[in-house]
Amino acid sequence: MNSRQQTGLYQTWRVTRQQVVLGETWWALNDGRVETWWRIDALGGLHCLLNNLEDRPLIREAPEATVPAGVFVDNYTYYLPGFQLETGTLSRGVGPVKILRTLAGGSSGGFDEGFDLVEAKIGDRIIRRDLYGISLNIDPEVYNCAIPCYFVACGFAGADPRGTVKPCREARVEGAELRTITGPDGKVVMQEGVSGVAFLRVPLWLWPNGLYTVQAYGPQGTAKTVISHPQ
How much is the pTM? Predict the structure, then answer.
């Protein structure tokens, strides 16, 4: 998730329950902040509850979409109107793979937040890029974690000046309880507890150039890798 306030956040979305609403069975989608309700009708049409009213977003075929979870080809787009406009890409058998939310107008109009699928679990099926291994793996790509400005009142949101580059890397940790990053001088520059499957950004822009050792510790042992800054 990228927003006006921060880049490289991660959210876990879950389909948590079902309930009969307006005579139809709906499914609750919880993103950790809010809960939304969705259903599919007998003809394959998508429905959502928007402001307690049933809405049927227009669905059209969409081109191939490439996100951190992989490349998806059997896609459709949907559109939800409102002051916060939402457009998304749905992939058959997977669900949402890309979502973009924009504010409709005013000095703060423009990009609000965007989402790209990193990993999905549907029943026993796990969808993720092959580069992600078990325990610990570092994405070879170097990202720019600067916060861009998309609207007039940028100074109030803490956006970085145009052209700012904040290099960072992405790590996937599974089966560990603690992750540490040690700098070239042998001192720990970051330490945090983790659980389950965790996606983390390594903020390289905060540290001087050199080799950094990333370690994950868990009940089954230790995983370790080294990354170079700059790449």
Answer: 0.63
